[in-house]
Amino acid sequence: MWSYISGVISLGLIYVIATVGLAVFTGFTGLFSLGHAAFFAIGAYTAAILTYFYGFNFYVALAMGGAAGGLVGFLIGYPTLKAKLRTDYFAIATLGFGEAIRVLLENLPITQGARGLPGIRNETSLPVLMVVAFIVIWFAWNLIHSRHGRACIAIREDFVAAEMMGVNIFIGRLRSLVFSAFCAGLAGGLFAHYFCFIQPSMFTSYMSTQMTAAVVAGGMGSISGPVIATLIFIGIPEALRVANIWRLVAYGLLLVLIMIFRPQGLMGYRELSLDLVKGWYRRVWKGGRA
Amino acid sequence: MSEHVLELRGVTKRFGGITACKDITFNVEKGQIMGLIGPNGAGKTTAFNLITGVYGLTEGAILLEGKAISGKRPDLIVRQGIARTFQNIRLFRNLSVLDNVIIALDCHETYLLGASFLRLPNVVKRERAVHEQALEYLAAVGLEDKAATRADAMPYGLQRKLEIARALALKPRLLLLDEPAAGMNPEESLDLARLIRTIHDQFGLTTLLIEHHMDVVMALCERIFVMNFGEKLAEGSAEEIQKDPDVLKAYLGEGFKRAQHTQS
């Protein structure tokens, strides 16, 4: 039983790592991506190929996977963000990019096409995931509480006004794209060395959508919100495994309910803090007695 | 000797077949408050957008303290010492009043991205300093007790003041104010005129002001430039402008002559 629970938590943490990056990109910079699974896949394949074919140290491979994600983020972001695509057009561009990467992975010799890479070393453990997740969350937190992160927030709020505050919009957007792509790549590397098998069909637009949905449902302008939403989205389908195919309905229903009752997301523009929890506790307690 | 802080030389902007600004030439002297007036659609805000680099020029040149700024990106122009407010308020609405000012102050910070990620001691130190400074700028416009309020939760008049505080926090030498008194009653707008005068003197600014409230313009501006249909109509002191027949015609129509006639 413990190994099952630990498995669910591990999967949750892998997604948390990717989603925190996306929270900076979508929740704080205001750009939408429908192709982050591609960065995830690039990180997974880079790290896996390095350990599988070349016998690299796991941590080095992991870092390289993140770096590869970040580099590809830079390469795709440079032309699209330079062209100042509107955010909706940019989202479409990422959708196409995500599919292109998947098709590429299916056809390259080194990725072994649709067969995938079986028998990757099992290196990702729960403690490793907890440490990486902690570091990524700490980095993201520090970023948004610095001049670099506030520039991104200013771009999200009003990019004309941001420019009039001396913010370089292109650099700000590119920076947060590279950060989110790095996080996704890191998560991908961890994913590959957790399941010990990867194939291109794992990294579909469904995965991208799920990550973006977690950010939106968790709340724009929040880190803790998307983290909680990710854990719920991973946990609910597992908890409802007995309900068989209906668990996917429950997942969709949950998303719809959040959007109806909390359109700003679970934690829109707020963070989980002790004061907030105390406030909830007080409200629930009072409600209980009334 | 007077010194040109801002110089417009034959500035022209065409949007397709429409000429929004045609051959506009004027100087703003150091320490001056200059007014830019004209009927709606005269091209005043376009002139601001050209000065701040939001639009590129079709012809002409714009100089800040003798250096050409036309053709540069808006964020670089801002860093050279121009700050502006917007006609239709453009605050960072979901952020606190304090954070709005802090983002403006950030443009003078220099710590590196790596330091941000690791939150090195110098970042923590700068964050504290920026926080203190932001409160000072809020105090300058009388918003110090609103620091924690969300920007869009404030009444309209206070939002205008926050825009001014945010522009001041960029530490500009030239301040462009686009209809700061729009939507205010006469009492409020005179109150705002006093505030503009105070901060102009306190921060040693040069100010260019677009405004429709003539009492504000006449109270503040030493010189006035009048535009109509994208062209220069008149330029001079407040008294000269008030008597200028072309200006009266543009504002009141041909009928003013008859009115003058019947009065005399």
Can you describe this structure in just a few lines?
The complex is a heterodimer of chains A (290) and B (264). By secondary structure, chain A is mostly helical.
Structure description:
The complex is a heterodimer of chains A (290) and B (264). Chain A has 290 residues and is mainly alpha-helical. Chain A has a single domain, classed as ABC transporter involved in vitamin B12 uptake, BtuC, CATH 1.10.3470. Chain A has twelve helices and two strands. Chain A has a two-stranded antiparallel ribbon with strand order 1-2. Chain A is globular and about 55 Å long. The mean pLDDT of chain A is 92. In chain B, strands 6-7-8-3-9-10 form a six-stranded mixed sheet, with helices on both faces. In chain B, strands 2-1-4-5 form a four-stranded antiparallel sheet, covered by helices on one side. With 264 residues, chain B is of the alpha/beta class. The mean pLDDT of chain B is 91. The radius of gyration of chain B is 20 Å and the shape is globular. Chains A and B meet through helix 5, helix 6 and helix 7 of A and helix 2, helix 3 and helix 4 of B.
Instruction: Return Rg of chain B in Å.
Output: 20 Å
Low-confidence stretches of chain A: none
Q: For the largest interface in this structure, which chains are involved and how many residues does each contribute?
A: A-B, 27 and 34 residues
Beta strands of chain B, count: 10
Average pLDDT taken over every residue of chain B: 91
Q: What is the helix fraction of residues of chain A, given as a range?
A: over 70%
What is the number of E strands of chain A? 2
